[in-house]
Amino acid sequence: MPLKDFARSLRDGILPRERLRRANPGAFVAGTVTFAGDASRARLAADVSVLGPTALFVTDGGGLNGALLEVGERTYIGEFNNIRCAGAPIRIGRHCLVSQHITIVGSNHGTAPGTPIVDQPWTGDGVVIGDDVWIGAGAVILPGARIGDGCVIAANSTVKGEIPAGSIVAGSPATVLRHR
């Protein structure tokens, strides 16, 4: 969080995590969750649980300004996760299980030659995770991932692109092993 935003939250007496809690009264957000961004752009449905330490960053940057986090009802987000919209939307469906040590990112830095990576505009169109999805520990969900309803993402898998509904996937990059 930029220093000026932190100073503003001290002045206002409301830390960012508390703003997130107040904007989403039906959700449980653990005291060890780190939140940065606009709480009105983080929509946590009823009975969502976000355990900590987990980082939720609903921020714009790198030339992108579409940050939005939506999490459907009865979804569980475990400990030590890193969810960063980075200027793009991330949508997680209903009745999902997001295990521990998972990274979900909505955009990435550009990689064109001739310009330092830190100076390049970000690219990516966010992430969509369907309903009833289980994401195993250590998985990485990359920008552009579209995970269908009922999927199982094995531990330590890397997901990019589209995963058909009902698929069980594993690997880096994740490939379909079978269907539920």
Automatic annotation (TrEMBL):
<dbReference type="InterPro" id="IPR011004">
    <property type="entry name" value="Trimer_LpxA-like_sf"/>
</dbReference>
<dbReference type="InterPro" id="IPR001451">
    <property type="entry name" value="Hexapep"/>
</dbReference>
<protein>
    <recommendedName>
        <fullName>Acyltransferase</fullName>
    </recommendedName>
</protein>
<dbReference type="Pfam" id="PF00132">
    <property type="entry name" value="Hexapep"/>
</dbReference>
<dbReference type="InterPro" id="IPR051159">
    <property type="entry name" value="Hexapeptide_acetyltransf"/>
</dbReference>
